[in-house]
Amino acid sequence: MTPFVITAIVLLWIALPLGLVAWKGRLMEAVVAYELVSSIAVMVLVLLAQGFNRSGEFELAILLAVLLLGSGLVFVRMLERWL
Questions:
Q1: Which residues neighbour 46 within 8 Å (Cβ) at sequence distance 6 or greater?
Q2: CB-based contact 67:30 (threshold 8 Å)
Q3: What residue spans define the domains of the chain?
Q4: pTM of full prediction above 0.85
Q5: Which residue, among 46, 83, 82, has the nearest Cα to 64 in the 3D structure?
Q6: pLDDT (tens digit, 9 = 90+) per residue, 9-64?
């Protein structure tokens, strides 16, 4: 295993408690955890693409980064009704 794959695995372990916060936490805590998990997911995809030497997989990470930015803004806008 390359250092890129090992780092991706560590980041996935870091994301587990954030998933619990997003699921069980208060509203604003859930929003912050969602944004953090989405950032970690993009980093994991980039690390795995580099670790397995698949340059075509970088496109998925870039697309996910763009989509997650918009979805986070929509998510916060929808939560604004209940705040």
A1: 58, 61
A2: no
A3: 3-82
A4: no
A5: 46
A6: 999 999 999 989 988 888 888 888 888 998 999 999 999 999 999 888 889 888 98
